[in-house]
Specification:
26% of the residues lie in helices and 10% in strands. The longest helix has 11 residues. The protein has a domain of 43 residues. With 62 residues, the chain is of the alpha+beta class.
Amino acid sequence: MSKKKKNTKPSVNPDLEGFEVNINAFGEIKSSLKIDKLNEFLNKNVEDKKLKDRDDLDDIKK
């Protein structure tokens, strides 16, 4: 059998340092980062597959 690894924190982008997500007893997602800041980070760093063929994509990112 394989040995269990210690509970280590994953490496993250410096912009998301301290970001934690938990689910409470009611199934609600609780985050240590405001959703607006998370969405801003995702908009800058993740390509949206639905929008990649649009001509005005550069205008949207700005």
